[in-house]
Design a protein that fits this description.
With about 350 residues, the protein is α/β, with parallel strands linked by helices. The protein is built from 10 helices and 19 strands. The radius of gyration is 23 Å and the shape is globular.
Length: about 350
Amino acid sequence: MEFSDRIRKKIVQANTTIIQAMRKMDEGLTKLFLVFDEERFVGIITNGDLQRAIIAHKPFDTPIRDVINNKTKRYAREGDDRNKIKGWMLEKRAELMPIVDANGQLVDVIFWDELLPEKPEDANRPKIDLPVVIMAGGKGTRLKPITNVIPKPLVPVGDKTILEVIMDQFESIGCHRFYMSVNYKADMMKYYLSQLDHKYNIKFFMEDKPLGTIGSVSLLKGKITTPFFVSNCDSINEQDYRDVWDYHVNNHNDMTIVTMVKSFKIPYGVIETGEDGLMTALKEKPEQTYQVNTGVYILNSELIDEIPEGEFFHITHLMEKVQSRGGRVGCFPVSEHSWKDMGEWPEYLRMIKVL
């Protein structure tokens, strides 16, 4: 059957791998694809399906036909009432709804914007109200000379500072209580925020000396009694953090790390050797895929007691401490292009070009 260009752009083949599908979603700015095995419609693959497959430790080269879960999907039939279809799409916050015939073959697709004005991710989803700790005390030395003048959280991205972009994202999902660890140029940050038309609910706490990437959170003992987010101040993540919270709760984690799926391609033929230097394998331009720390976390409040007071202490030290006592440190994966970093000048310049 002939489909429109809009539908064809949403089609991928069932032998596409997890990592390939994540890249295609990034390139197409989409959260789902229609999957075909040659000419036969197989179902829908969503970004959430890919994330759950990675969490379940499926290899990145797993074909997506092996991770589609049609039990959780709903497809409309020819002749179904459009108001009924609209209700299904609202319930699932679905970007599109496939229309299939009696044999399960795709005959048409209804897109969200054909029925509803708002974005699917904004529809009928409950808000969450968790505290957010923002680590804003660093000197931003890798962004000098601009950070000689202003602190890194006030570096502009678009018509806002990166600090505002981060806080606005948390406010959009219902998080309005912020705790901000400050040190370098703290007075400038406080003054800037006080002059904004939009007033954020922020409690500042001072890091009198460098305490590492999580050490200053020890100053919040007794002040936070629920799970809470921790975010750095040099990256933006397009992930809806309610998905991370759902994973954290359902997986009974002590800590959840938001990770970015990053691939590195070696531009050479790689040779493996054994005894006597004899070649055992040859791989032409192999690709390695890893999960990279993005600097956003959910921590259970009890972990604050495990952060030593007044000592230099990194978040990696806390991860190791939790793991060593048998605690659960979960990782929630996001795609490479959904995370934008400005830790160094090349990354910052790339960030401001795409925003």
